[in-house]
Design goal:
A two-stranded antiparallel sheet has the order 1-2. The chain has a two-stranded antiparallel ribbon with strand order 3-4. It is mainly α.
């Protein structure tokens, strides 16, 4: 029966190629249908690979069964072999009368919803509601794990989406010990989630090649001692030195991990109990005797290098951090969309979120049109529903907001900001909000202005430069005036400025 199996495999491969060709020509509009199509094609490609291996084994004929069967058919009585195989087939169906016969012609054919195809697609159980079929990331559980790491910073979910792939200070607290089992499990789960997300959203890409390239690049970086935060000449992973000391504008206190804008405040801070206690703790942790350094697990030895066992643990943690950074860079667009979606949902009520989720799933489960005519009718109906002659902004449900709400918020009033590159903001609320956004702050920094809080309501470049120049002149005059104050002393030994002394002398109070 090897020849029959060989013929079956050839037919199966041709049917699979035809099924892939039928699906590639489709262009689904919904992301759920596109993902379902891609996963079906990926399954067909995997089956083609398996069937091709079986077919290649038959052609290799290592045991000689195929040559023996061909010899029996060619030299012996062909009818004897035919009837023997026929008896085997009849005997099989007598023992299993309800065994269904596989029809390859319909096995891989694209079925319409009315022809018996299941309403549940392959991708329906792959994604959570927050992921929306691969449009966004769902890192809520990992955010909780991040907050539960000892001595770590407390950040919101929106901030976590921005820094989850950054493992060096100031994004990660310097007091956070990376060599704990809790941190190791956290980075492992985060790397596993990103890999799984890529496999679910990009089933047709060669992800094994991407993962292999990440491993090779990490091996080169680790051998060259170039992995950020894990080099031998740096401190131990449990107490990593900050890569950047604050914003770089003030005075940084490494013991307390704080930045001070004023020199006098910093000096008074040095004599405080909190600073003295932190300095003693840091000095005690850094001064480990060389005899005890080799006995400790998770610290640097006397020569400034880690033990081989500890270095092996560090390598496992660094490998996961490096993998997370590379995978996050490949998901940058989805990551940005997730931040926008989270920020948008924060301004919605719980009822609005529930209605939006129900509408999304209802639209995803709605059967797609089967021909061009139905698609044109659907498009025309959608265009008739949305009537927006005044060009009003769209709400969360895709419909124009009421005109009274449009007038209430003043969305028809334009506010231009020259510092933002003459960008126009619609409405007073958006205009007031933009002073704290990155676009306006970046424009001020390009002008050399660092104290952005003092430049609210200023949109002109010339006005901003004049105000900044005046602030700088006032600061310089204040410093000069403070240095040139003449102190006077009366007969009783009271010290006072010269101006106060002269005033009191004129009044006869001295």
């Amino acid at each position: 029966m090897l020849l029959e199996e060989q013929r079956f495999l050839h037919e199966d491969l041709e049917r699979l190629e035809q099924g892939i060709s039928d699906r590639v020509t489709e262009d689904p509009k919904r992301i759920r249908d596109r993902l379902n199509r891609d996963h079906q094609i990926a399954g067909f490609l995997t089956r083609i690979e398996d069937q091709s291996k079986r077919l290649l084994d038959i052609y290799n004929d290592t045991e000689g069964l195929r040559a023996k069967e061909i010899q029996e058919i060619s030299t012996g009585d062909p009818f004897e072999a035919f009837y023997r195989q026929l008896d085997e087939i009849k005997d099989f169906h007598k023992r299993y009368p309800t065994e269904p016969v596989e029809n390859l012609e319909r096995a891989y054919k694209r079925k319409a919803p009315g022809e018996g195809e299941s309403a549940t697609a392959e991708v329906d159980n792959m994604f959570t509601g927050e992921e929306a079929f691969g449009r966004f990331l769902d890192l809520t559980l990992l955010h909780e794990d991040y907050l539960n790491i000892p001595n770590n910073k407390r950040v919101t979910y929106l901030q976590y989406l921005q820094i989850f792939d950054k493992f060096t200070p100031p994004h990660l607290n310097t007091k956070c010990n990376k060599r704990t089992d809790q941190y190791f499990g956290y980075v492992g789960r985060l790397a596993e989630y990103l890999e799984n997300f890529l496999k679910r959203t990009r089933p047709l890409e060669d992800l094994d090649k991407l993962f292999t390239s990440i491993d090779e690049d990490f091996e080169k970086a680790w051998s060259a001692n170039e992995v950020p935060g894990w080099s031998l000449d740096s401190k131990s992973a449990g107490s990593v030195a900050p890569a950047t000391e604050g914003t770089g504008e003030g005075i940084w206190c490494p013991e307390c991990e704080k930045e001070f804008k004023n020199d006098n405040v910093y000096r008074s801070h040095l004599s405080g109990k909190k600073h003295i206690k932190a300095a003693e703790a840091r000095k005690a942790s850094s001064s480990i005797p060389s005899d005890d350094a080799t006995k400790t697990n998770g610290h640097v030895n006397g020569k400034g290098t880690s033990t081989p066992v500890q270095r092996l643990k560090d390598r496992a943690i660094a490998e996961r951090e490096y993998r997370i950074q590379r995978l996050a860079s490949s998901l940058e667009s989805i990551r940005a969309g997730t931040r926008v979606n989270v920020e948008r949902k924060q301004g919605m009520t719980e009822r609005e979120r529930q209605i939006e989720l129900e509408a999304f799933f209802a639209e995803s489960w709605e059967p797609a049109p089967q021909n061009g005519r139905d698609g044109e009718d659907t498009d025309s109906e959608g265009e008739e529903k949305i009537y927006n002659p005044l060009k009003l902004p769209l709400a969360w449900d895709g419909k124009p907001i009421p005109y009274w709400l449009y007038k209430l918020h003043g969305l028809g009033v334009e506010f231009s900001c020259e510092i933002c590159g003459n960008f126009v903001y619609m409405g007073r609320r958006a205009f007031d909000k933009h002073f704290n956004e990155s676009r306006h702050i970046y424009g001020l920094k390009c002008l050399g202005i660092t104290q952005t809080a003092l430049f609210r309501e200023i949109t002109g470049i010339e006005d901003a430069l004049k105000l900044w120049d005046k602030i700088q002149r006032d600061k310089a005059a204040q410093k000069r005036g403070g240095a040139n104050i003449v102190q006077m002393e009366d007969a009783e030994g009271n010290v006072m400025p010269e101006k106060v002394y002269l005033d009191l002398q004129k009044q006869g109070l001295l």
